[in-house]
Design brief:
The complex is a heterodimer of chains A (700) and B (189).
Chain A (H helix, E strand, L loop, with lengths): L3 H13 L3 H22 L4 H16 L4 H11 L3 E5 L2 H14 L4 E4 L3 H5 L2 H7 L3 E4 L2 H8 L16 H12 L7 H18 L2 E4 L3 E3 L4 E6 L3 H7 L3 E7 L3 E2 L2 H16 L6 E5 L13 E7 L3 H5 L15 H5 L3 H4 L13 H8 L16 H5 L6 H16 L3 H7 L1 H10 L3 H6 L2 H11 L15 H5 L10 E6 L1 H7 L1 H13 L2 E4 L8 H5 L3 H20 L2 E5 L2 H14 L3 H8 L1 E3 H5 L6 E5 L6 E5 L2 H4 L5 H9 L3 E4 L21 H18 L3 E4 L2 H11 L3 E2 L5 E5 L1
Helix pairs in contact in A: 2-12, 3-12, 9-10, 24-25, 27-28, 27-29, 28-29, 33-34
Chain B lengths: L1 H14 L3 E5 L2 H14 L4 E4 L4 H10 L4 E4 L5 H10 L2 E6 L1 E3 L4 E6 L2 H6 L5 E7 L7 H14 L6 E5 L4 E5 L2 E4 L6 E7 L3
Parallel strand pairs in B: 1-11, 2-3, 2-4, 4-7, 7-11
Antiparallel strand pairs in B: 5-6, 6-8, 9-10
The chains are: A alpha/beta (700), B alpha/beta (189).
The structure holds iron/sulfur cluster (SF4) (2 copies).
One iron/sulfur cluster binds next to helix 17 and helix 18 of chain A.
């Protein structure tokens, strides 16, 4: 049973914990910035990197014999291999080994796989103490916590926190100075490295062709853990095995770039056999534990098999807006962040994945992922499983039904608009449906787009044919936007059709109604496919709709129809940009108005705002792109929901963007997304509109 | 071509807080080693994995300083001796230009520990050994491992001094491994 109240309390506590959101945000934004800088400076072809990582992982996972081939090579080189079905088996193996070697203390370098099976605690219970040697891991171990981030385990701790934790752990006063802390830790760990009989590392990749394990670290603890003790244990997930050294190179460099913006980590080590120490090989052992723990099940489930492509870089965490304000103790179970949702659902049980509600379906994690993993879709599947098990919470049901609501509200406008405005009505809406009373709800238009267009010039077709896809906003709330869009397309010489279509269906994905989203996708694809075959292009002014058409529908209704529609669908400004020379653009505000421009998340996968900004500049506006590098926090209708699992969390994310808008002194905000506009307006008081509303367009 | 790679390496390695020195002769190599040891106040130096033709220059540079010849020590004794050293001198099989890294191949963990444990590590690398990038270096590493007839070596890439950003994302050096890594690029070896 999902405990929404418990989750809301956790979010509330996280947001109220002094400094937590600020520290998380600072760490994740720095990591985002470093990644972006590295991509630019190193000239990384992100698309190429994604294709390559994904391709090599899929090839490796598609070869059921690969783990055996890897194991055979390890054994040929004198190593021992153990296939562990689950965490308990892996822990038993290590506990027995430690006993055999008389080791009551192990040194360990960072291993996320070991976190997954609660390695340290389980071994402790068997009388074997496990010392974390990665600084961040050591801090959280001393604090009796779990890592808050895959790559930055102690991102939520200040220098003062760390000094106090380390003082307590070492039982002596450590000054609140990072260098002093470092010295103390070095002095504490050095004898441990030298005296430990067993060292444990993870593995970033296992290379099947030679039976080699590759690990990456920045601190160098992995080198010490693997070289100084007589026994080296590698705990590696079965999905980490790749075919060749070249594949391993691709994995480790993509991980370093995506994690911290480094071209490579400071140390990359590759072990193939246990080396002697000072010429003595007796008693030097290498044990490789290949862990399944639910991976085979995941591999055979098409909804989740992609999760196995994860190379544990943490980039999805760094870009995730809600994770970035609450951290991994709230947005996570054992693994933190976006990828943890499908992973938790499969490895630790669906009931532990209820925090999936904190995903606001912005889609950015997929964008940032070097393996191009479709986390948003997997998270939608996890939510669907939870809905199937526990039912849909009332507020989510309300918003998942926005299309029907819009139809109703539009049919009863202006009464519906008037009745939603008074404070008493808002309080009632909050009580009855969970819609936050502080939110300005969009007004509905009595006349929908198609009736507005009746009698309007729909273009002569000299440039081609276009289907305009309005989605909810340009159909029910702001049909004037649709009218302008059709006007621009007609002025460019396109013959424009606005057939009967459904909404894009994104809210169904956000609220875990994947099957309903698939039905919507099927309807729209069927309706659009015929047009495309007749030579039409599909154009939308709503970035989420363009994203659904070009991306999500391919997964929801795979096949020739969705591929065809995706290939012929376009975001509005990208589509009209080549013809702008034929048009006269006049700014409707000004002169001298400076616009603050916001890039909607779903457009980051498409145009990153470029064509819209150029359109506004061509009309004579000064345009400043105002950016946090992630979402505005609205997440479709998520930010309209009341309380911690809605408005409060949405606002905690939004505040960072609002501050930038306030500091920019821009008098007006422009954004292509209707919901981002609402968020910016509510957060800053600025008027926030679609770029098309700021420009009069006519044929030259 | 090789020196172009070495130059590219030097830029990136330095940007990662590594130190790069070039030596065009045996004498210059000895001198660079001597100066480095003196500047770091090293009273004992662990020397490991140095190829025959370069040993003389190393020995000359370290004259007057306690030298721990890692290869001559057995078992745990080697590990403890390396841990006592203030500085180490090791050999890198290749330099990696684009990512600014050194590639070490070791057949004994005492040699590997020599580049891990002391506060300063001086890694000698031949200017002619540079490879364009990490991918090429991994291919070369894979080949060394696959073609090693006997025991397989451990490959380590080292792209600067040990570092962490685990305390409020502040960059700190020398958490476990060397605080300082000096790449001494040999134009003559
Ligand atoms: S879709 Fe957005 S909110 Fe959801 S997990 Fe990914 S980054 Fe976070
Ligand atoms: S899901 Fe992608 S972005 Fe997230 S940790 Fe894994 S590889 Fe990195």
């Amino acid at each position: 049973m999902t405990d929404r109240k418990g989750l809301a309390d956790k979010v509330r506590r996280a947001l109220a914990t002094e400094g937590l959101s600020d520290k998380m945000w600072a760490s994740t934004s720095r990591a985002r910035g470093n990644r972006a800088k590295a991509i630019e400076e190193l000239g990384i072809d992100v698309r190429g990197m994604k294709e390559s990582v994904r391709g090599l992982k899929q090839e490796a996972l598609g070869d059921p014999e690969l783990p055996r081939k890897f194991a055979a090579r390890v054994e040929e080189n004198g190593g021992h291999v153990f296939f562990a079905k689950d965490g308990a088996q892996a822990i038993d193996y290590v506990a027995e080994l430690a006993k055999r070697r008389g080791a009551d203390v192990l040194v360990k370098s960072k291993s996320l796989t070991s976190e997954e099976i609660d390695f340290d605690h389980a071994l402790e219970a068997r009388g074997v103490r496990c010392i974390e040697t990665d600084l961040g891991e050591l801090i959280v171990q001393m604090a009796h916590e779990r890592p808050v981030h895959l790559v930055m385990p102690a991102a939520h701790k200040s220098v003062a926190d760390v000094a106090s934790i380390v003082s307590h752990g070492l039982k002596r006063e450590v000054p609140q100075d990072p260098d002093a802390i470092l010295k103390e830790v070095r002095a504490y760990l050095r004898p441990m490295f030298l005296s430990a009989k067993v060292g444990v590392t993870g593995g970033n990749a296992g290379v099947a062709e030679t039976g080699t394990v590759v690990i990456e670290t920045n601190e160098g603890n992995g080198r010490l853990v693997s070289a100084a003790p007589d026994v080296h244990v590698v705990l590696i997930g079965a999905e980490k095995i790749v075919r060749t050294w070249e594949d391993a190179a691709e994995v480790v460099s993509a991980a370093a770039i995506s994690a911290t913006g480094q071209p490579m980590t400071v140390y990359v080590s590759a072990f193939t056999a246990r080396s002697p120490l000072g010429g003595e090989g007796a008693g030097r052992e290498l044990h490789v534990i290949i862990l399944d723990n639910g991976r085979s099940k995941m591999k055979s489930d098409p909804r989740y098999s992609e999760a196995l492509d994860c190379i544990r870089c943490g980039a999805c965490m760094n870009i995730c807006p809600t994770y970035s304000v609450v951290g991994g103790h709230t947005f996570g179970h054992i693994y933190p962040g976006p990828i943890s949702i499908p992973w938790t659902a499969n490895v630790h049980g669906i009931d532990n994945a209820a925090y999936s509600e904190l995903c606001i379906a912005c889609g950015l994690c997929k964008e940032a992922c070097p393996a191009d993993i479709d986390m948003p879709m997997m998270i939608a599947e996890v939510k669907q499983q939870l809905v199937d098990l526990n039912g849909q919470p009332r507020v989510n049901r309300f918003f998942a039904g926005s299309e029907t609501l819009a139809r109703l509200a539009s049919a009863t406008a202006p009464l519906s608009n008037w009745s939603l405005r008074p404070r008493a009505a808002r309080v009632l809406m909050e009580k009855a449906f969970g819609v936050d009373r502080r939110r300005t709800l969009p007004a509905f238009s009595r006349k929908r787009l198609r009736s507005r267009l009746r009698g309007m010039d729909a273009g002569d077709g000299s440039a081609g044919k276009v289907v305009y896809f309005p989605d909810v906003s340009a159909d029910y709330n702001d049909p004037e936007l649709g009218v302008k869009a059709v006007g621009v397309l007609a002025a460019l010489g396109y013959k424009v059709e606005v057939p009967k279509l459904r909404w894009s269906g994104m809210p169904y994905l956000s609220y875990g109604e994947v099957r309903k989203a698939a039905r919507v996708a099927e309807y729209n694809v069927r309706a659009l496919e015929g047009y495309v075959r007749d030579g039409y292009e599909v154009v939308s002014t709503e970035p989420t709709a363009a994203y659904m058409l070009k991306d999500s529908y391919l997964t929801l209704v795979p096949g020739e129809g969705s591929s065809l529609v995706a290939a012929h669908s376009h975001p509005f400004f990208e589509f009209v940009e080549p013809g702008l020379g034929k048009l006269a653009l006049t700014a409707t505000r000004g002169p001298g108005v400076e616009l603050g421009f916001h890039i909607p998340c779903h457009d980051r996968a498409l145009t990153v705002g470029g064509p819209a900004v150029r359109f506004l500049r061509a009309a004579g506006y000064g345009v400043k792109v105002i950016e946090t590098g992630t979402c505005c926090g609205m997440g479709g209708t998520f930010g309209m929901k009341a309380g911690a699992l809605g408005f409060d969390l949405s606002n905690a994310v939004g505040e960072r963007l609002f501050d930038l808008f306030r500091g920019s002194r821009c008098g007006l905000a422009a954004t292509e997304s209707s919901v981002c506009a609402a968020q910016i307006h509510d957060g800053t008081g600025l008027e926030a509109v679609h770029p098309l509303h700021l420009v009069d367009v006519s044929r030259r | 071509m090789a020196s172009q790679y070495a130059d590219a390496f030097a830029r990136v390695f330095a940007s990662r807080n590594g130190v790069v020195l070039f030596a065009q002769s045996k004498g210059a190599t000895s001198e660079a080693l001597r100066r480095t040891a003196v500047e770091r106040g090293a009273s004992s130096v662990a020397v490991a994995g140095i190829p025959e033709g370069v040993r003389g220059a190393v020995a000359e540079g370290l004259e007057g300083i306690e030298v721990i010849d890692v290869g001559s020590l057995r078992g745990a004794e080697a590990k403890e001796a390396v841990a006592r050293a203030d500085l180490s001198v090791t050999w890198a099989a290749h330099g990696v230009a684009k990512e600014g890294a050194l590639m070490e191949a070791t057949w004994d963990d005492a040699t590997k520990l020599a580049s891990c444990l002391p506060m300063t590590n001086v890694a000698l690398v031949s200017e002619g050994s540079f490879l364009p990038d990490f991918h090429a270096a991994m291919r070369a590493a894979g080949k060394i491992v696959a073609e090693s007839p006997g025991p397989k070596p451990t490959i380590s890439f080292i792209a600067g001094p040990s570092r962490t950003a685990d305390i409020e994302s502040r960059l700190l050096y020398g958490v476990h491994g060397p605080h300082s890594v000096v790449a001494l690029v040999l134009g003559w070896a």
